[in-house]
């Protein structure tokens, strides 16, 4: 009983700890890299190329096959040992070993291994690209949660100010200092803020669920992230010339590496297709033996009467009889030799070379070579296009980051001016120099400026991370 209670307490403790856990961005990225389904599928593709490589290496190993058979024959059959026809029932068994080895096949075996290695490398590039994409998706979803939480904090803090203003205005209205319209105006503002808080809370919840789904975490209710604000750091990326970022991207980004490996694969396929023009030379060796329990007939000289004498003719001139002598054979039934003895007595081997020279095959090889040549040209164009697309994407990301920086700086300037305007309006409202409507409008502008600053901040952070990925920074080493 004590053990059961201890286990229950431990389970409750673990549940509470997991419920209280808040995920950092690094933890989210690392968890996604370890558990994302698309990444797991890409890892399976890499494992499949391992199997292809093993198969290609196996072409250099001789083929070996073993065979055996057992049968029972009834009626007129040929004895597999004596090759004589006989009517009986007998058991027979055969065994064989075949060995084959390709001596030359136009170097296709060698190029199959080379192609398998290239295919494995291309799969690794695709896996790395998938990890980069997933890391970026996770970072974007994480920053979206932070943005929604920051906006919720703005809405809640400003609503606290509104509630304080409602209480103060109520006292002034009761004292007859302010008209009732000011109280109604602020109460209307409070209603709009409460609706905005509810909508922002829902946005936080939805963004958390989206991030949890991306991480394949099912416990939506307890999933949460660290609420610490992320500051804009490592702005040196925008100080680099865009050409430097493009050159780094061409060296490090997997889009170009994948396109380059596709060209190498196409060139290797062309070599393979040309290899079919060459003769194929192979060697073979086989060993076989047999056994049967069938009886056979044996003829031997009769020891008691080894010869028979009979007249075979008469000499016409003398009338003398001509006597002939012939061996006297006795037929006897002989049983089957022992199993082991027959294996040695009835075995045989065969070995030799096979040469296959292609002469005419309906232009199959020629058409395959032509298609391979076309595919090489196609992949080269795709490589060129991949480089152009990467250059365009880097330029776009660079311009977007610069634009995001300007928007962030403008938002910072706007928040400073709007905060001063709001404080000035608040002071005037507190002393009765402005009405509730003008004060609410000033407060609304200030709230919107704070929300816009949050949006510009996280948008700028995300676009900086995109540039860092293009520059070759590892996804798990991105700093926030």
Automatic annotation (TrEMBL):
Record key words, sorted: Cell outer membrane, Coiled coil, Membrane, Signal, Transmembrane, Transmembrane beta strand, Transport
Entry-linked SUPFAM superfamilies: Outer membrane efflux proteins (OEP)
Major location (coarse): membrane
Cell compartments where the protein resides: Cell outer membrane
Any single Pfam family the record assigns to this protein: OEP
Stretches of the chain forming a coiled coil according to its record: 242-269
Stretch forming the signal peptide: 1-19
Protein's UniProt keywords contain Oxidoreductase: no
PANTHER family xref list: OUTER MEMBRANE PROTEIN TOLC
Family the entry assigns: Belongs to the outer membrane factor (OMF) (TC 1.B.17) family.
Name of the molecule in the record: TolC family protein
Organism listed in the record: Jejudonia soesokkakensis
Organism phylogeny: Bacteria, Pseudomonadati, Bacteroidota, Flavobacteriia, Flavobacteriales
